[in-house]
Amino acid sequence: MRNIFKRDERKGSTVQGRWTLLTMLVIFLTFTIFSYILLNTFQQVVLDNEAAEMEDLSEELLTRFSNRYYPLTEDATESMLEEPEIEIGAVPSPGYRIDREEEYKPPVSLTKGGIIVKVYSPDEELVYETDSEEFDFMATEEKKIAQIAGPFGKALSLTEPIYSSYNDNLLGYVQVLQTLEGYHEMTDDLISYIIIIGIAALIFSSIVGWLLISTFTKPITKLTAAMESIRENLESDVRLDEGTKNNEFSKLARTYNEMVDLMQSNIRNQSEFVEDVSHELRTPVAVVEGHLQMLNRWGKEDPQILEESIEASLQETKRMKTLVQEMLDLSRAQEIDVYFKNETTNITDLIRQLVTNFRMLYPDFTFNVDDDIPDDTYVSMYRNHLEQVFVNILDNAVKYSTDRKEIHISLGVHNHRVDIAVQDFGAGMSEEDLDKVFNRFYRVDKARSREKGGTGLGLPIVKELVEGYGGRVSVDSILDHGSVFRIHIPISTE
Ligand code: ADP
Predict the structure, then answer these.
(1) Atom of ligand 1 nearest to the CA of 443
(2) Which of 214, 247, 419, 458 pairs with 452 at a CA distance of 20 to 30 A?
(3) pLDDT of 390-440, one tens digit each?
(4) Of all atoms in ligand 1, which is nearest to the CA of residue 401?
């Protein structure tokens, strides 16, 4: 219990800082992964496109170069490329007419960005090139696409042997190269954009993260401040704002406020109880002390003083004993939940027995019982507790009766509960006392109650017991005319 109030001296990083960092990290990682996937996909698509274009071009060139008997030479290649059907790097002009459709071959663009064409003889001698840029060349037996080093980094190379369409002789090799200049430029641009957007996203996300997390941690900060104020001063009336919404935070605030209210009321009750008890014990202790001092000074020799003092001291000791017993009863009455929740008692039996006892104890009183309920009515209450409730109420009825020594007891059943009324025609109580008689140690007339051996704990015990079993107790009274105590106790369902 104590360590709740112990100050936690540990220093630590703030939750807000850590969460902001975590959010930033998560956003950064997500962004990086997505950018990487996007960049890779983009690169793949571009490379596939370039490779497809290279294949188209190489196919076109092969068709032209294979149309011959002998290996390719420089002159031959040049002249084949200059065939009238071929227009290198040009689109057919609007006036271009195709006279013989079967001879038409679509123009091939050899000047397209990044494309270089090289032609090699069968003995791997370079015989023709559209650009003097040097690239690795390896003769192959079939079409081969490879990534090689180019002037801008990675480049694509397609090498394919050329066989004569007449005699299948090897005429040479065609190598189509793509320097990927545009691809490299675009990739560089894309990476720069990704970095810029990434930094902007990181800054933005950390600001948003900080703001969001501070909104979430605000209630916790407020809760901590409220708890600290309670720690400084247990009586502090600092409470959390419950707000108008019904969300987790307002529930937390409500629960916290209720908890603090309960704690403070318990602390107040406890200190009041200690004050009340010491106040109650002060009188009998002072009386006993006074008598003992008197005896000590001059009473030892005087049998009459001795007699009187011993008599008075015994009476006060008896009062103290009753007081202690009743305090114990009251404290036990608060533990019903734990021990006696399933107990049941035959109420008609108990009332009859109690009335018989009271008639014997107070023969000058008339007890009228009007029990309008079945004989085997059981209520959900432990027998000793129910007995204590009736004894306390009947005791009071006797104690505070005046001339008309008559007590009426009635029992009835309503809505799964037994209603009991105990009426006397005695001193009664004023309206303002009615609200207080169930408070601990409250007595309308202290001197009178004391004289009758009252402690002011009888009715609080009744209330605690009855309510502990889910019942209710109330009182109606008219000063100088009498009182009616009403008790409702749930009928046992078993
Ligand atoms: P006590 O031990 O003084 O009787 P209780 O808690 O039983 O304490 O009762 C509290 C006070 O309520 C009594 O001091 C008395 O003033 C008042 N009271 C209780 N019962 C009656 C009653 N039947 N008629 C008049 N006053 C009553």
Answers:
(1) 14
(2) 419
(3) 999 999 999 999 999 999 999 999 888 999 999 999 999 999 889 899 988
(4) 24
